[in-house]
Amino acid sequence: xxxxxxxxxxxxxxxxxxxxxxxxxxxxxxxxxxxxxxxxxxxxxxxxxxxxxxxxxxxxxxxxxxxxxxxxxxxxxxxxxxxxxxxxxxxxxxxxxxxxxxxxxxxxxxxxxxxxxxxxxxxxxxxxxxxxxxxxxxxxxxxxxxxxxxxxxxxxxxxxxxxxxxxxxxxxxxxxxxxxxxxxxxxxxxxxxxxxxxxxxxxxxxxxxxxxxxxxxxxxxxxxxxxxxxxxxxxxxxxxxxxxxxxxxxxxxxxxxxxxxxxxxxxxxxxxxxx
Length: 275
Known about the structure:
The protein is an alpha/beta fold. The protein contains twelve helices and nine strands. The N and C termini lie far apart (about 60 Å).
């Protein structure tokens, strides 16, 4: 009987700790301004129209259509803030190098998807949105540069006081840096079901990140979750118990957009134009 009681107590304790691990920050007063928009994933890009992802043209089109945009930021070898999704330049610029191994001079000689569009820097993108529509800025740390990337990005953002934005990352270390050093910035934990595709994560890390179990360290204001995986119980509990806002990525048809919006999620979309 004592053994059964101990098992029940331990199980209850584990359950409580699990629920506490999902905790988020109190609702940010400026979050309501951001949830009023839909966000074009990497700008309003379309390869068939020769508008590359994360290009200045794609971002201009997003603003013209009244959308916010999501973009990705990396650090170059010489400390420039580069707007690009992949760390590797192979897919988007046909150069077999990583951004962190390139200087700005090298990057300036590259083009996106065989077009005339150059790889943009963050300081080129922010003025397009300041005073207009908001941005979701994803920090893409590489080789342990999460603190340096977060610090330089925040320093750049301070130069644009009329810009509406939030920041997100898959890497909890970047969000923890934001919580400790820039707590007033709206921050969000990116996630998906890493148990299906671990992306080189070990099984323990995949389980923890899938289930948002670093929230107690980062206290995110929102959770940006892959749309196809949004039924995960941890996301549901995170919203229900702690009031964390849901963002859904990447929406690729109007029907999915309507479903997500009906359920109260903010949508990050591409290849469609939701109303």
